[in-house]
Design goal:
Blueprint lengths: L2 H11 L3 H11 L1 H19 L3 H6 L3 H4 L7 H4 L7 H22 L1 H27 L11 H14 L4 E6 L2 E6 H19 L7 H28 L5
Antiparallel strand pairs: 1-2
Helix pairs in contact: 1-2, 2-3, 3-7, 7-8, 7-9, 8-9, 8-11, 9-11, 10-11
C-alpha cells in the first residue's frame, strides 16, 4: 500500500487548500496540533529574545540531578530556527498523518512522546558521560519523536514509495530502504561529527528504535484484531 501517495492524493480529492487541510485535520488532529504549537512557540521564542528556549529547553546536567524533569516534554516543542522547524514539521506531516490515521490519536501520541522522551534521556547521558559537554549545553527539538513516528510508519508500510533528496540527487526508494539509509546516515554522522555538529544524532537513533518497537507491538495487536479475531467472530 503506497500510503505516502495516498496522503498526497487527499489534496487532489479536495476542492481547495482549505478543504484539504480541514479533511487532514479531521483524520490527524494531533499531528496538526503539534505542528501549529511548534510554529507558534518558535515565533514567540524569537519575539521574547529566545527566553522560551532557555526557560523550557532541556539541560542534561540538571536532568540527571532530578531537576526540571518536565523539560523532557517541553523541549520537544522547541526549535533552533525556522529551517530546523520546517524540516521536522515536514517529516511529521508526511509520516504523522498515515500513522495517526492507522493507530488513532491516543496511540500516535504515546509513540511520539515516548520516542522523544527516551531519546532525550539517553542523549542526556551521552552528553554528560561520553561527550562531557559544557554544563550549560541545552537540548531541544522534535527529531527524536519524529524518528519514532517514521519508524512506526515503516513497520506498517515497508513497501511505501518515497522520493528522497540525497545531496543533489532525487532518489526513489521504498520505506524499508529509507529506514536503512536513515539509520546508516545517523550512525556515520554521529561517529564523524559527534557533538560538534550541534545535532543529537543519538537521540534520533534512540527515537527510531523506540518507534520501531512500539510499531511492532501495535502492528501485532491490529493484525490479531482484524484478521485473527475479526468483529463478529
Amino acid at each position: 500500500m503506497e500510503i505516502v501517495f495516498d496522503v498526497y492524493m487527499m489534496w487532489r480529492r479536495r476542492k481547495g487548500i482549505i478543504d484539504a487541510l480541514c479533511f487532514q485535520f479531521r483524520i490527524a488532529p494531533a499531528t496538526f496540533t503539534i505542528m501549529l504549537l511548534c510554529l507558534i512557540i518558535l515565533i514567540l521564542d524569537y519575539l521574547t529574545g529566545r527566553y522560551i528556549l532557555v526557560r523550557f529547553g532541556l539541560f542534561p546536567y540538571l536532568l540527571l540531578k532530578g531537576v526540571q524533569i518536565e523539560r523532557l516534554v517541553t523541549s520537544i516543542f522547541l526549535h533552533k530556527d525556522f529551517i530546523h522547524l520546517f524540516l521536522n514539521m515536514w517529516g511529521l506531516y508526511v509520516f504523522g498523518i498515515p500513522v495517526e490515521r492507522e493507530l488513532g490519536t491516543r496511540n500516535f501520541l504515546i509513540i511520539y512522546f515516548l520516542s522523544g522522551i527516551l531519546g532525550n534521556i539517553l542523549y542526556s547521558l551521552m552528553v554528560v558521560y561520553v561527550y562531557r559537554l559544557p554544563i550549560l549545553t541545552i537540548v531541544i527539538g522534535a527529531s527524536g519523536a519524529i524518528s519514532g513516528i517514521l519508524a512506526t510508519f515503516i513497520v506498517f508500510y515497508p513497501r511505501a514509495r518515497l522520493t528522497v533528496f540525497v545531496f543533489i540527487a532525487i532518489i526513489p526508494m521504498t520505506a524499508i530502504q529509507f529506514a536503512i539509509f536513515y539509520l546508516v546516515l545517523q550512525f556515520l554522522y554521529m561517529i564523524a561529527f559527534g557533538p560538534s555538529a550541534g545535532i543529537a544524532f543519538f537521540a534520533h537513533i534512540v527515537g527510531f528504535v523506540v518507534g520501531w518497537l512500539l510499531g511492532k507491538y501495535y502492528y501485532r495487536r491490529i493484525f490479531i484484531r482484524r484478521y485473527v479475531y475479526p468483529p463478529g467472530y
